[in-house]
Design brief:
There is one protein chain. The chain has about 180 residues and is mainly β. The chain has 3 helices and 11 strands. It folds into 2 domains: about 5-110, no CATH class; about 115-184, no CATH class. The chain has a 6-stranded antiparallel β-sheet, covered by helices on one side. The protein has a 5-stranded antiparallel β-sheet with strand order 1-5-4-2-3, with helices on both faces. The protein is elongated.
Length: about 180
Amino acid sequence: MRDSTRSLLNALMGAGAGVPTAPGFGLPGLTGVEQPRGPWDAVTSAHAPDLPGDTFSFVALEDGTLVVDDDVPDGSATPLADAVERELRRPYEAVAVRRDDEDGLWRIAAVDVLIAAAAPDDASERVDLARVGGEVTATVDGDEADPDRAPRGLLDLLAHLDGDAALTGERLDETTWVAQRWAL
């Protein structure tokens, strides 16, 4: 599981925000509790009774393709994506938690992401890039690196962001990066 997916899942279940309750209980937007919204851009729910498990994550690409880590029945995750897409445009990364008290009801949190091409011969898994005052810095798999050695697709994403900015890219698969952007 990618770090970004794990942090979204923890936030949805209350761990990231220090919510001292059962997973998901008391989340803003779902129960009206006044607490910070969290790291997501959309929070919703959907019925997906054919989707197995208690937690699920996926990335929706611009063309509508859902990239999932788990082997699930065809179409079983579509209700989750449909619910998110009523609030957020693709591409996005989403996590979902099945509610214990209702059959097939899932809580879903999603965050807007950027997608970039990855070179198959690049073995890096995580890249952090920042641009401050025009100077670019890079960290590749936890080690400081020459920005020119950072993956071209991620450098191109950073180049298209206005002003001082940062992004964190994680490998989605052999040919794709999924990145979150941060204004500085």
